[in-house]
Amino acid sequence: MNRGTREGQGNRASTVLGRRLGGELYRLRTAAGKTQQQAAQEISATATKIVKMESGWVPMRDPDIRVLCEFYGATDVGGLLDLARMDRERRKANGWWHSLDAGAMTEYIAMEDIASRIRTWQLSLVPGLLQTADYARALAVSDEYWQDPDDIERVVAVRMKRQQRLWSETPLHVHAVVWEGALRQEIGGPSVMRAQLEHLAEMAKLPNVHVQVLPFRSGGHPCIVGPFSLISFAEAEAMDVAHMDVIGSTVWVESGQESAVYSRYFDRTARLSLAPRDSMHLIDSIGKGFQA
Fold it and tell me: Which comes out higher in pLDDT, residue 90 or 141?
């Protein structure tokens, strides 16, 4: 079962959480030496349904999960039931992002909306959750994918709406590590950049926002290959998911073992970065260098 999934490949009805849950059921079944046909008989279904469940193509009912886990000899089903509940919530087409037509970001935003923490490493830009509208607009304008002004404004609106999680009743915790080069790259002109860096420093004052800068002088580091985000959930059994944007597609890393590698890389890069107070001093210094 493929753990790294590119958006646009495979069945679009699947979700990251659904694939993870299906992968866990697949692992339990194969470890127990059971066939898909035997599993299907336990829940009075067809083998095709087991295939769809293990591929994450269909939402799963709690009774089916309990019966299958008992059949496979698994006693701890709480984490799987939590994953199933989150997946069912994810599939409901009533999130705010649907009304704004978030496009390729739809699945990521849905995951972010139920996440408890985001750890993000950025090489070339300020993280979306910490961007100003003008900075986000300048990024969209520079992307040849966005040609229609209305589409560009929708991109900006989606990004600004996402940021409301930072002030919600259950605020999203963000740990952002940003390469110094991203802060010096002029996006939208000097005035836009200066305002963006001032905004970044203000956002870093929130108790749930932690910002560090990896300075040029740090030299080589574990995350030099590219940016990524790690999405974490409140449920103890819901393992982290890694997300990366690449040209033309999106990559999800869904297995606990592989996402743990990204977590270690992130932590090692954070340790090489400036402390938050020193990061703010550098952000302020760079911001003053952008003359309007």
Answer: 141
Q: Is the pLDDT of residue 70 over 80?
A: yes
Pairing of strands 209-214, 173-179: parallel
Give the amino acid at 194: R
Query: What b/e sequence results for 111-123 when a residue is b if at least 16 CB atoms lie within 10 Å of its CB, and e otherwise?
Result: bbbbbebbbbbbb
Who contacts 215 (Cβ-Cβ below 8 Å, separation ≥6)?
180, 273, 274, 282
How much is the pLDDT for 104?
57
Strand 241-246 vs strand 228-232: parallel, antiparallel, or unpaired?
A: antiparallel
Q: How many CB atoms lie within 10 A of CB 75?
A: 7
Amino acid at residue number 164: Q
Burial class of 206 by CB neighbour count within 10 A (0 to 12, 13 to 18, 19+):
middle
- Which one has a higher pLDDT value, 282 or 15? 282
Measured between alpha carbons, how far is 96 from 44 in angstroms, rounded to an integer? 37
DSSP label at residue 239? -
Give the span between the Cα atoms of 184 and 179, in whole angstroms. 9
Nearest-5° Cα angle at 28, 44 to 234: 105
All residues at 6 or more sequence positions from 139 whose CB lies less than 8 Å from its CB, including other chains: 125, 131, 187, 188
Closest among 223, 146, 189 to 291, alpha carbons compared: 189
Between strands 117-122 and 173-179, the pairing is: parallel
Residue 27 is inside which H or E element, if any?
helix 16-32
Alpha helices in 185-275 (DSSP H): 190-203, 256-272
Task: In whole angstroms, give the CA distance from residue 125 to residue 135.
Answer: 10
Please give the angle made by the CA atoms of 152, 252 and 276, to the nearest 5 degrees: 75
**Helix or strand run (H / E) with residue 122:** strand 117-122
pTM exceeds cut of 0.85: no
Q: What's the N-to-C CA distance of the chain in angstroms?
A: 53
